[in-house]
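Do me a favour: review this protein, sequence plus structure tokens, and tell me how the chain folds. Record follows.
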Amino acid sequence: MAVCRLACLLFLMLFAGTPANAQNMTPVGVWQDSSERVLVNIYFCGNFLCGDLVWFRWPNDDQGLPLVDSKNTDSALRTRPLLGLRVIYGLHLADDGVWVGGQAYDPDDGLKYHAKLWIDEDGFLRVRLYELFPLFGETQIWTRVR
């Protein structure tokens, strides 16, 4: 009887600190960026994470035409539509639960950055974009929509 109680107590202690959404601690889903201007659908593409732009608060330019990748450093890509554009790619899961090793494209400046993603204890997605080292970057906080 004492062994049973001890086993139950250990079981409760083990799972007492587990967040209610622990089963949903994957970044797969639809996320709103910190500016609340876009939604990004993050999904598995093979063994990696990818993310596509799937919604814009203002989907058209001043002439009423769909937004295009006008700031891309490659002039040949400046007419491609932003809706559906892959902006996150190549991230894999590290042992510490952080998604690393990939890149993110920022259509606001037309540049690619190294990227790290992780979900914090409150269920928000932390998106760290940087050039050389994570220390010299910026972390955005995204909110899950779906």
